[in-house]
Automatic annotation (TrEMBL), chains A, B:
It comes from the Bacteria. It holds the Pfam family cNMP_binding. This is Crp/Fnr family transcriptional regulator. CDD domains: CAP_ED. InterPro entries: cNMP-bd_dom, cNMP-bd_dom_sf, RmlC-like_jellyroll.
Length: 188, 188
């Protein structure tokens, strides 16, 4: 299963067996059941997570009305955590919980900085990943600014048809920022 | 003026004089007048820009109705470009133009990758900057999902009181996603 991490890193930089074993030794494997939390709002954030299998959502709950907003989904081959809390070592403002049974490899900030300092190629890998993440978020902002919820639903369906099957409709509605009833009008 | 770049990098990693001169030799200085474009929608994106002085906006124009959406502002000590186009060497979907007379240091992707490969500490610097950028965008998404335009105006005023003075009201309105008339109701 951890071979998935190797394949993922090797899309950016080649590794020897020894290098990969060394990198892997800095991760902690975790298995989670459906509905279990990896990050809980208000709690410290110890790890960044590389998803081996399963599906998670990162969400924010408005303390005033208890309404949940989905920031993003993460599944196989994605990294996810509350990055603001992780990098600043502050408490989470997001929650991260499992929509399906999930297996992850968890990397603490100390270990991330350690392997980045020790191995230039890993620093390079994480820089490239961070650049891609930045571009993805910029696209999401543009989409929030310029498209309707129905257009966003159609984009999601076109880009990630599997996701629509795997995620309950109430959660898709919350990602799009509409009610469950409004979503049902898009999916006739 | 280029000392500003050194101070900016040294917030993350110390540099010798020789290292800084070497890094600086990979940048091209540019001076721009008010309303001049650094990045133009549809054109290739050659550079990432470190702002020495002035003020820029990154915007997207909807081809259907010609409406302009402001993605972000950039001023002293910020980096800005159309990152999707820059990293993927594709044509810009954003425009980047000067709200004030602006001086920048421009870094091509080839030179960025060169100094990152040659100097581990520069790769580290850009990884850290990219992480901060990611966090800032995540905050903007949360704000777009969970707050009203009036609340976003008040956040902007609290965080960047100077910006409100420097940017024309029509552009602030476009950043918030409201009409000029709606904005005037927030600013009584």
């Amino acid at each position: 299963m951890s071979e998935k991490l190797r394949q993922h890193i090797e899309k950016i930089t080649p590794l020897t067996d020894i290098e990969f074993e060394y990198i892997l030794s800095h991760f902690v494997p975790k298995k989670l059941k459906k509905h279990q939390f990896l990050v809980q709002e208000g709690a410290p954030v110890q790890y960044d997570y590389f998803v081996l299998s399963g599906l998670l959502k990162a969400s924010y709950t408005n303390p005033e009305d208890g309404k949940e907003y989905i920031l993003q989904f993460a599944w196989e081959d994605w990294w996810t955590t509350d990055y603001q809390a992780y990098f600043n070592q502050s408490n989470a403002i997001l929650s991260l919980d499992c929509i399906e049974e999930t297996e992850v490899l968890a990397l603490s900030l100390t270990n991330r900085e350690k392997i980045c300092a020790e191995m230039h190629k890993i620093e390079h890998f994480f820089r490239r990943k961070s650049n891609s993440g930045y571009i993805a978020l910029q696209r999401r902002i543009l989409s929030l600014l310029t498209t309707s919820a129905q257009e966003r639903y159609e984009q999601l369906l076109a880009c990630y048809p599997d996701l629509i099957q795997r995620v309950p409709k109430t959660i898709i509605a919350s990602y799009l920022g509409v009610s469950r009833e409004t979503l049902s009008r898009f999916t006739y």
